Amino acid sequence: MHPVIxxxxxxxxxEGGFQALNNIHLEIQRGEIFALLGPxxxxxxxxxxxxxxxxxxxxGEVLAAGHDxxxxxxxxxxxxxxxxxxxxxxxxxxxxxxxxxxxGLFGKPRNDAHIEKVLRDLSLWDKRNQRIxxxxxxxxxxxxxxxxxxxxxxxxxxxxxxAGVDVELRRxxxxxxxxxxxxxxxxILTTHYIEEAEEMADRIGxxxxxxxxxxxxxxxxMQTLGKKRLTLYLQNxxxxxxxxxxxxxxxxxxGGDTLTFTFDASRGRTGIGELLRKLNxxxxxxxxxxxRESSLEEIFVNLVHETDNxxx
Amino acid sequence: MNIYAIRAIYKFEMARTWRTLLQSIGSxxxxxxxxxxxxxxxxxxxxxxxxxIDYGAFIIPGLVMFTLLTQSIxxxxxxxxxxxxxxxxxxxxxxxxxxxxxxxxxxxAAATKSLIVGVLILITxxxxxxxxxxxxxxxxxxxxxxxxxxxLFGFIIGIWADSFEKLQLIPLMVVTPLAFLGGSFYSIxxxxxxxxxxxxxxxxxxxxxxxxxxxxGVADVNVAVSLGMTLLFLVLCLGTVWWIFKTGYRMKx
Lengths: 312, 253
Hints:
The structure holds two protein chains of two kinds.
Chain A: E1 5-13, E2 19-28, E3 33-37, H1 44-52, E4 59-64, E5 67-68, H2 73-77, E6 80-83, H3 95-105, H4 112-121, H5 137-149, E7 155-159, H6 167-182, E8 186-191, H7 194-200, E9 203-208, E10 211-217, H8 218-225, E11 227-234, E12 250-253, E13 258-264, H9 272-281, E14 286-293, H10 296-311
Parallel strand pairs in A: 3-8, 3-9, 6-7, 7-8
Antiparallel strand pairs in A: 1-2, 1-4, 4-5, 9-10, 11-13, 11-14, 12-13
Helix pairs in contact in A: 3-5
Chain B: H1 3-19, H2 21-42, H3 55-86, H4 89-93, H5 99-128, H6 136-160, H7 164-180, H8 193-199, H9 203-216, H10 223-247
């Protein structure tokens, strides 16, 4: 299957010499939700801006549904919708007019029924005649999404879509994104909220300092790079880890009441059985235990730190 | 050609005009009418006729042209600068529109507003001063050509400006003096020979002269030269706009 977005050898050097992107290769499949994670200044917005035509690439090429975004910009851009990071709105315009404007701008004939549906889906219908400046931040964010959906795009870019919105609205947006995906829309989102990527994404790409660090199925990423932690609640506190157990990655906490063992979940031999036997031999009893998989956030932080360390 | 996009931009810009009717249309019509009252009705009756035309009637083409220039520049420069300032320009840049379509939308709307103002001023002037139009088709032609040309010039200023101060700089510091010294209130024949030669370097002279010819059949410079100079400025503006979109100057990084 051809990727809906294909990025090859893409680099961007801004005036002044700052390299925002360095030889990016990335393919995004039709109908998936792809989360692009990265710290501030990693190049996420530059990458999206190049695909959408807002920033010129220095070198390389980007194809959207097989159309070069520079040479065949009309065909490429007409299937892309963008929800920008900044709340940039026409403050004095009404919600209806600004959404209708977006539809026309993207070359689509007037379709009041579609705009009504978009506004209703985003709970904006009651606000359709209000000026945007009178809306709350969350509502403005919805307006930006409505504008991006006005021309029925096949590919939707959400650049930090839930930044600064409350939990309820965030959940609403996640539901909307899932519904769009069920209709075949490809979603590419950048986010600081790892929870968001963990909740929604099919695949995850991590970008740091203008380079793609990893692209992986979310489940596979968490399995491969994720670590599990076994926490044992001891019956009697320990002053230190016994010498017989020093070969294990153990950590003593809570004044010696808790012992934590970190292991690689992807390996066949985790070492848990052996550890428990040795604890028994040492006469260390525990009253309870539980294991926990590392979150995407921990994986992300580790990946970024690893690449930072490699660069030094 | 993305007709829907041109129409969307045009309608969006015109909607701003109707929303701010007093400021967009009422204000320039009122301020120009004050000139007619003061220089036409009050002082004009005591001034000698120029080239056989009553002073009150003589200044009408110049004043209309003066307002047309400033309004075209102001409408078009604000029209493109404001989306840049507010950040909403991202949508135009990411839309499937060519630079020709963007210019047609923004400049078309700005020129339309100027034309409306110009025609309203002409109608209003009739209440204060008696004038006639010898070549109405040429008059409308000059009106339209000047509106489009200076709207393009305003569009360029709106892209060049990176602050509201810069947005006002050229209209106030360059265009207004040139318009005042371009023969709005006098014929350049009335100047000493040296200043007559200097004045010929002022492009506004050609606009006002040609426009006045369409009213009364008299002009400071040959009407063909006036038309040629206006067209030359139009081509220069078109070339600059083409270069802006080709390089992405102040629009894309």
